[in-house]
Amino acid sequence: MIEPVALNDFFITFMSAALIILFGAAYAGFYAWSKLRGKPKLMAWAILCYAALAGATFLLAQATHLNGEWRILVGLMLVGYLMAPMGIWKLCVGSHDD
After folding, report:
1. Could you tell me which of 51, 45, 50, 57 has the C-alpha nearest to residue 18?
2. How many Cα neighbours within 13 Å face the side chain of 16?
3. Local structure of 61: helix, strand or coil
4. CB atoms within 10 A of CB 39
């Protein structure tokens, strides 16, 4: 059974959830921008944003008491989000080739 979030963990839960949204959007944005402009420095920013996304995700999992199998699910979701921009990029390039 999942325990509810304690009141003193509420701020951590709120802030980590907001950071997940922020860093997830930044990761996807920097990834696409790097591919469009061909600038490897932007890919480094994308990787940094993904690392921050992963940190915020595990902080949220800890604050909301996601243990055991739930941590595995969180990890699988992070792997999926790591691969999603790559797959979307390949799909867009493949569908727009002449």
Report:
1. 57
2. 16
3. helix
4. 13
